[in-house]
Amino acid sequence: MKSLSTDQRRALGAFLIAIALHMLGTLLIQGYSSAFSMRAMLVLASLLAIASIGQTLVIILGGIDLSIPFVIGFANVVSAQLYGDGMSFWVVCVIVLALALVIGAFNGLVSGGLNIHPLIVTLGVGTIIQGSVLLWTAGFPSGSAPATLSEFVSIGGSAMGLPVPWLVPCFIVVIALITVLLVRTPYGRRVYAVGNNPRAAMLALISPLGMWTLTFAISAFFAAVTGILLLGFTGSAYGEVGQPYLFQTIAAVVIGGTALVGGRGSYLGTVAGALVLTELNTLLIGLGLQPSVVQAALGLVIILLVSLYGRDPHVSTRI
Amino acid sequence: MSERGATTGSGHRLARAIQRSVFSSAGFAPLLFVILLAINIWLNPARFAPAAWGTLLGLAAPLIGAAVASTPAFLGGRGGIDISVGPLMGFVNAIVVLVFIQMLGVSSPFAIVPAALLVGVAGGVVNAFLATILRIQPIVATLGTYLVLVGATLTILPAPTGTAPQWLSQLAGTWSILPLGCVFLVWWAICRTPYYDQLMAVGSDDRAAYTAGVPVTKVRFLSFVITGLFSGAAGLMLTALIGSADPAVGPTYTLIAISAVALGGVSLAGGRGSVIGAAIGAIDIFLLQSALTYLNVSTFILQISYGAILVLAIVLTAVQDRYMEQRAQRAGS
């Protein structure tokens, strides 16, 4: 229980940083807290946080998933293409999500079963997927997003009279579901157990291999969901749309206080991390900095934040 | 992460000794190398004729350099990784061409080579400080320097520009063996010192190494500095090959170098593998690209086969590891 309270403290810390950044932005930049910019930030942060669900689970489990950007691109292009060919959108979603589950399960099965570092397996599998999608579309993806999907994620949309698109309330439900999944279900406890000590988990009759397969499948599933949502957000398919998420998902997880060694962390922390990253990006761009400078500043801030509360213990304390 | 590697690595010295003698701890990379080389020579004898070896090696040099540079950080274990190798190469490229040649007008090798290596070492020291003294997880620490370096390179060099001096371009042609040879010589010298054994001990089991009196933090610190030094050298090889300053090329080397390292049998959990293995892994990827480019297949197929070979090779290496272990266990009991 003690580690849980540390997680909560870290998540709270990340939320406070996000709020501080927001106040700083409001002070420095005119219109930073305007309705439009708030909505835009909420939508962007939601998308990042959904893409980071899988990364959070996988990192708590003790792994890492570099295939997320490739699965995002895959879902983005394939769903647009199939929908453009006249298929019903729901069928398209089922096909894409099922394929994503298979991809993720393969990632988990190979890296967990053969004890290969997931970094390299997910990277290799991601490369294959990206190449296959490019081959299928000959590099020029076509198709479009259904209007309901665009409405669902549109910055200008509204839900239940609120000035936010349906994505945001749905996302809040997802936060609750993932948190309950991690804290209150046997699956969640097993994720922490395997992440803490795979051998001890095995003695408690948990199959680490099963957990790896299932969790990587979940990770790919949510990456595919992000890919489909991004299709609605941008309106057209683009195979590289997931690339910024490669490092951003890891950064969101780490800023949220989840340790990369596994066994610790929370999804609420990741949500806070996604908010911090989005606020920071908006703030730096709002200050009129060049994209290249924004990138450099983002790197510095990630190092700064993680050095405040994400440090590893010294080897002498591990003996 | 390293916990998982350590469970298979500990206590099976015999198996490892056998494996080392059979496959010289480079997994399937040497076998793949022979096959791919044969295919390449069969496809395109002119390109692989001895007269063209200099140019050929020059083409492969930045990738080999990047893979070799990535290796020491991995060997240190406990999540040791340096993803800033590619951007650091790009940064060195920008500094050499833009600052030294264009702005200062210096083109002497005696100024440029030390400067490039110094920039590399400086980058390595920053990474080492963040990852071992501040103890930020290496992948996050080097992600931070990755972003800073890419941003800094793009800020001073928004678009490709400049030209490399003649002597440097020759290092990607006739004399391409020289920079690579120097890097291998330095690593060979390091392997002759006690430091190398300490690095492998720390990578295999840092707790055991610590209780045995190995200065774990110092050893890991140095591994990142060596990675930085080699990244500086790889940045020079990159500059020699492209002959100008280009902000977009460097960062692309990071992921492909990690693939090459894994292909070459270097354990990403630390303590196992060699720089030679990493170099062979890099050459494999180069030969694969070369053969597929010659066959004029689309870059998409190139990408698929590159990913497939990577996954296949590491799966085969893992299966072989497991088989060796089981045999050793049976022999032992």
TrEMBL record, chain A:
One of its GO terms (molecular function) is transmembrane transporter activity. This is Autoinducer 2 import system permease protein LsrD. The complex is composed of two ATP-binding proteins (LsrA), two transmembrane proteins (LsrC and LsrD) and a solute-binding protein (LsrB). It holds the Pfam family BPD_transp_2. Keywords: Cell inner membrane, Cell membrane, Membrane, Transmembrane, Transmembrane helix, Transport. InterPro entries: ABC_transp_permease. It is found in: Cell membrane. It comes from the Bacteria. The chain crosses the membrane at residues 12-32, 38-59, 89-110, 119-140, 160-183, 203-233, 245-262, 267-287, 293-310. It is a multi-pass membrane protein. GO terms for cellular component: plasma membrane. It comes from Flavimaribacter sediminis. Its main location: membrane. The keyword Transmembrane applies. Part of the ABC transporter complex LsrABCD involved in autoinducer 2 (AI-2) import. Probably responsible for the translocation of the substrate across the membrane.
TrEMBL record, chain B:
The chain crosses the membrane at residues 21-43, 55-75, 87-105, 111-132, 139-159, 171-190, 221-242, 248-268, 275-294, 300-319. Keywords: Cell membrane, Membrane, Transmembrane, Transmembrane helix. GO terms for molecular function: transmembrane transporter activity. The keyword Cell membrane applies. It is a multi-pass membrane protein. One of its GO terms (cellular component) is plasma membrane. Signal peptide: none annotated. InterPro entries: ABC_transp_permease. The keyword Chloroplast does not apply. It comes from the Bacteria. It is found in: Cell membrane. This is ABC transporter permease. The lineage of its organism: Bacteria, Pseudomonadati, Pseudomonadota, Alphaproteobacteria, Hyphomicrobiales.
